What does this fold into?
Amino acid sequence: MQVAVKYGNRFTVSFILDLMDDRKEGDNDAMMAIETSNADGRSGLHFAAMYNQPKIARLLIRRGQDPSFQDNDGNAVLHHACKSNSTEVFEAVLDEVEAIRGRNYVEHDLLPIENYNEEATALSLAMENTNTKIILRIVKDYGIIGLNDFNNSFVVYSAALVGSIELLRLLVDVIK
It folds into this structure.
């Protein structure tokens, strides 16, 4: 699965998922094989984020992979998308999850997830990597969310370092 995801082979990924569906009749072990696909606990969805494969990310979510599933370091799919600057995957995941589970789930369950080692959220990782597209998407659509590890002045300071006037204006409006 990981190799097929890494190289963007949707046909192979679909085939593997079909095989898993055939075996899954009453068997939870089949789904676990998809969810925890390697020794680091990274699923196909993690790999889609790490290797910027938005179409495969959409496919995996539609076929039941859990975007909140955390690897052994506590990174969920959005963490990997932010760390690898996979803006397209980030947006695909938010769009798919919101369509399936609703905006409330994204806002209250998915975005605030912190990884274990850095205690970082998707927004804080996007700030670290100065990915203004991801930052703007989160702040415009959901407000400043999941920033327990940062205070608002740090967020504005980071936006100034990024040099985005649009982001600074947006953040100042949100913080008011």
